[in-house]
Amino acid sequence: MAVSFLLYIFVFFTLDYSHALENIIKENWNRLSHPKKVYELYKLLNFECLWLCNDKETNNFYALQDILKHIPYHGIKPRESKSLDPELALTDELIDIAYKLYYGSADPSKLYKGWNLPKKPDQVINILASLLKEGRIRDLLIELSPKSGEYWFLVEQAKYLESLSHFEWKPIKLKRNLKLGDKGPCLDEIRFRLFLLGDLKEYKNSDVFDQELIDAIKSFQKRHGLPETGLIDKRTIQELNINPADRLKQVYLNLEKHRWIYPLKKTLVVNIPSFELYIMEGNRVIFYSKVIVGRDYREDLRPTPMLYSKVDSITINPKWYVPTSISVKDILPKVKKDPNYLIKKGFKVFYMGEEVDPLQIDWSIYDEKNFPFRLVQEAGPKNALGHIKFNFLNQFQVFLHDTPDKHLFKHTKRSFSSGCIRVEKAEDLALYLLGQEWTQERLRNLIKKKETTILKLKESISLYLLYFTAFKRDEQLHFREDLYGYDTILSKVLFSSGGKK
pLDDT of 58-67, one tens digit each? Predict the structure, then answer.
């Protein structure tokens, strides 16, 4: 809603509606975006005029103006109400903003298959009523936005990125990789961009690749999930060429995702694009591990889904009951090349519930349309799940587990799985969840027995698999790749008409 529109209302709106608001609401019912909520709010306020009836309401009006100036930095674009009544137009707009702040502008359950994250209880109208009664409507942004420090950090970053939008950001072309001591006409532009983005502390005109520039490049690479080589290579330039306006949109997308989350006191969180697992207690990280997530290969996309569940038990020395999709895509081609593959890797083959000898099967006649077998990998050092599996219910058949392939954690980008999450510090995570009575020695002795054992947790822990591509780390703004196009899906909804709905 443009400020000029508000001033128009302020100048021309002089009628006293207090005594007739209930009837006016009913008359404008079909013109309001949120008629039931408008009625509910006024009912809680005894159908008193809120905006332009006297000095108190005029203060509300200017407070709303102030909110409308700041709300774009939350990634929310105010919209002009369809109401023809000025008093109701402002209230309708207030409610629209309030619900977008609290729940978000998009419905993730309509965007992402299997979305099951819990929804926050609806307290919006009661909070609005309290703010209006207490003359604190200016506190709306604080009261209804997510309370996490990360959210408000992103809001501040949005303000800064918006300030950078007037700088020219032409694509930098790189003919070859640049390193310490090199000279080039593009180095001064790179230096200036790194200064604007906060990676270079002080800008001095220079076309020489010096140590100061190496440090800035490494800072930039770290913030964008790239190998910290200090070289200016193709991948680094690609990230550096993304202009502040597009980065601002990326921040807005992630502010939106924060509004979808039901806040919990203690949570096990996997952030898929950054390949990391945390245990969060409030705003504090109390456990951390690298993880491996699902493949993002164009020819073989196997994304890790976003979901909510609870880890309630841990399996030591788990067997792997291989999903049919993985059996035919990954294992069957290897068996056709090497008939002994299943035996070497510790797999058993079952047909109609009965174990069969894999060497007696003509594997050449089977494919993804014709595969009647169930493959089960026995517990042991070769098992794809490693020695530990963290159990949680979900409809996607994805697991959180250990892995024998520890070398893969050396990679910066870790999208190697079929959708499951492999945990680098699986043993440490198990010890944390099991509690103080479990020692490393006790756990390892249980693993050495090679028996499959399920350990029930004394207290389950909530699990979020989330997808943040812009986030706070060490007081800096980090960005990550949109691995599976989840951001692209959301962007089409939020920015489809040139601005956020």
Answer: 789 999 999 9
Structure token digits, residue 174: 């790189």
Any domain includes 493: no
Q: What tokens does 28 get?
A: 């404008």
Q: Which of 258, 387, 401, 411 is catalytic?
A: 401
- For the domain that residue 230 is a member of, what is the CATH number? 1.10.101.10
Q: How far apart are CA 213 and CA 229, in angstroms?
A: 12
Same domain as 122, residue 76: yes
Quote the domain boundaries for residue 422.
258-479
pLDDT at residue 282 in the model:
87
387 is catalytic: no
Report yes or no: 218 and 267 within 8 Å, Cβ to Cβ: no
In this structure, what are the phi and psi dihedrals at residue 366, rounded to the nearest 5 degrees?
A: -110, 150
What residue type is assigned to position 168 of the chain?
Answer: E
Question: What's the DSSP call for residue 329?
Answer: I
401 is catalytic: yes
Q: For the whole prediction, is pTM greater than 0.90?
A: yes
**Do 423 and 386 form a contact (C-beta atoms < 8 A)?**
no
- Name residue 51's amino acid: W
- 264 shares its domain with 359: yes
* Catalytic site residue from 53, 258, 420, 478: 420
User: For the chain, what is the domain count?
Assistant: 3
Q: What pLDDT, on a 0 to 100 scale, did the predictor assign at position 11? A: 45
**Intervals of the chain under pLDDT 50:** 1-2, 8-15, 498-501
